[in-house]
Amino acid sequence: MDxxxxxxxxxxxxxxxxxxxxxxxxxxxxxFVMFGFTKTLNVxxxxxxxxxxxxxxxxxxxxxxxxxVLGIVVALMxxxxxxxxxxxxxxxxFGYPGIAITHMMALSGVLFAIPINWIxxxxxxxxxxxxxxxxxxKKIGIxxxxxxxGLIIGIVIGILAxxxxxxxGQLGISTAAVMKIMPKMVAMFMEGLMPVAEAAKxxxxxxxxxxxxxxxxxxxxxxxxxxxxxxxLIMVPVSLLLAVILPGNKTLPFGDxxxxxxxxALMVPFFKGNIIRSIIGCSMYMVTMLYLSTxxxxxxxxxxxLAQYDVGTSGLVTSVNxxxxxxxxxxxxxxxxxxxxxxxxxVIVFGLLIYINKIRKTVSE
Length: 365
Fold this sequence. Notes:
It is a single chain. By secondary structure, the protein is an all-alpha fold. It is 67% helix and 3% strand. The chain contains 15 helices and three strands. The protein has helices at residues 8-13, 16-34, 49-62, 65-94, 104-108, 110-121, 133-140, 146-160, 165-207, 226-245, 261-264, 275-295, 297-306, 325-336, 339-364, and strands at 40-42, 99-101, 214-217. It has a three-stranded parallel sheet with strand order 1-3-2. α10 packs across α12 (275-295). It is a multi-pass membrane protein. This is Galactitol PTS system EIIC component. Residues 1-365 form the PTS EIIC type-2 domain. GO terms for molecular function: galactitol transmembrane transporter activity.
């Protein structure tokens, strides 16, 4: 049963370990920014839940609370490392200067998108397709309009879902409206948010020895992009089809159908905004997510039980969007090596933070 990542926040913050991340993250992040170990000042407190979730995974696998705390610290450093590495590309693509997306679930997909896009660049024919929304819109006329695309996608999904004519029409109109309104809503949200971001940057510059910092924000700022929205909508029927045909998969997408945007949004800039590449690449990523969510189901179920959630008599529960490599990495390391392996990952991540923010900067200068 895919119960979705939407319960991840309440799950994480309903535990003592999860609540502790707020203090741990704020204090540790401030220290790291002050000493120049990271350029990301994360104010996206809600999405602290995912590093907290990783800490709970560590607790569930090891049976020790202190290993869960260690997992939280390693997860936070990994979050800042990914945000630092990809900030420039993501900020440039979405047009958010000085903003770093710290949504770890979204950042995780980037490490998959980069090598896959390199492969796409070397496939004859595919590497010549200019599939950004603007180009497609010019080539196919009215069918490239976001409203028309939303209407068509909604109708097709409704047909595949077996809806009657009235519900198919309603879904088509609703999808078209979302495609039209969502970008404007995000733009308005960003217009109100930028003064806050600028104030945070001024404060950090004043109180952190003149160091500049990128303000860490939610991936929700990116989901209004036309390519992200189109890809997300198409991934709904694709994920259901893959779940049925993939041998060995036991996860049926349900709870996360409405949250795919947060798993794939940051992959789109690394597919160069190309809709064709985004759909193919995200479909490939979905295969890994389904298999990992199936494999991780016992661990995720144990996390829910650790938080004293009643999972009922349905057996195992899981989340498609939590079937990503950080969760798998922490689980494999703890099961095979133990806390020493987790600590080793922390040392490596810390070393990479120092390299990209201090050593590489010095060399380039």
